[in-house]
Design goal:
Blueprint: H1 9-22, H2 26-43, H3 51-66, H4 74-99
Helix pairs in contact: 1-2
Length: 100
């Protein structure tokens, strides 16, 4: 069966980027994500915005905040996260280029 859906431009760009990063066709990625979502629903797993997920997120954030040094700004945290993400992406690119 073929299903066609309309998605906002920003979501389309994110899907395309994710598929490219994973080396998958957009259709393959979309199908896999849909299958996993349906399986999670059937198991009764928490959805991203369920009360359980929110409580888990709030707990994780509180734990992180408790362990931060005093005076760290949100901007500093964001800069650290961005730098770490870029470092991981660069490493993935290096590994991809060596394996290709």
């Amino acid at each position: 069966m073929t299903i066609t859906i309309d998605v906002p431009d920003d979501l389309q760009a994110r899907i395309e980027a994710m598929a490219k990063h994973r080396g998958e066709a957009i259709a393959e990625l979309s199908q896999r994500v849909l299958v996993e979502y349906i399986k999670a629903e059937e198991r009764g797993d928490a959805r991203p915005w369920s009360q359980e997920a929110r409580q888990s997120w709030d707990t994780a954030v509180a734990d992180i905040q408790r362990n931060l040094p005093a005076g760290v700004t949100p901007e500093q945290i964001e800069a650290e996260i961005t730098a770490a993400r870029e470092e991981v992406r660069a490493e993935c690119r290096r590994e991809s280029s060596h394996g290709a």
